[in-house]
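To illustrate the input format used throughout this study, we show a single complete record. The first block contains the structure-token representation of the backbone; no residue identities are included at this stage. The design step must infer an amino acid for every position from geometry alone.
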């Protein structure tokens, strides 16, 4: 299936036969996405879809049952989620927020860490808009104040040392 998030229109699902759409409406029922502005969808496990929204936090959609639950295991996280990235190797879900920084949540251990803009984390901003992983394993984070890459040994984000990108 192809998952297509919309701005104030829920999620459209193009079924495998490419001939039919299924619509998941925004709302507050167990069958609804909890936010209206969908930013990103990620499928870290078979039949489990994570949905990031600007106004309803992260939702976890069980595709077999149709049940949708709030991801509420991190109380510090805002409801304005702009980016999700799942790292298959570490089983970490990276969650980029607008004004709450960056979170790393491990799906196996349920442990999490928050990264805020300070000298300890190396992030220049608490507004995270993109997270990508390079083929060599480097994780890149795009913020409103520049691009950083993650040094997993030091657990810090470092500048690229480019005058425009930093």
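Output of the design step:
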């Amino acid at each position: 299936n192809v998952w297509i998030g919309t701005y104030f229109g829920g999620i459209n699902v193009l079924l495998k036969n490419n001939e039919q759409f299924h619509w998941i409406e925004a709302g507050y029922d167990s069958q609804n996405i909890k936010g209206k502005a969908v930013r990103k969808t990620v499928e870290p496990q078979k039949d489990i879809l994570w949905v990031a929204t600007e106004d309803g936090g992260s939702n976890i959609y069980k595709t077999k049952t149709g049940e949708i639950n709030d991801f509420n295991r991190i109380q510090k996280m805002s409801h304005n989620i702009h980016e999700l990235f799942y790292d298959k190797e570490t089983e970490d879900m990276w969650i980029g927020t607008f004004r709450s920084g960056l979170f790393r949540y491990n799906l196996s251990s349920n442990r999490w860490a928050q990264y805020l803009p300070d000298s300890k984390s190396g992030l220049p901003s608490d507004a995270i808009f993109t997270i990508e992983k390079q083929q060599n394993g480097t994780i890149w984070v795009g913020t409103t104040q520049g691009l950083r890459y993650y040094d997993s040994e030091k657990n810090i984000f470092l500048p690229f040392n480019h005058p425009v990108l930093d």
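Structural context for interpreting the output: The mean pLDDT is 90. The radius of gyration is 16 Å.
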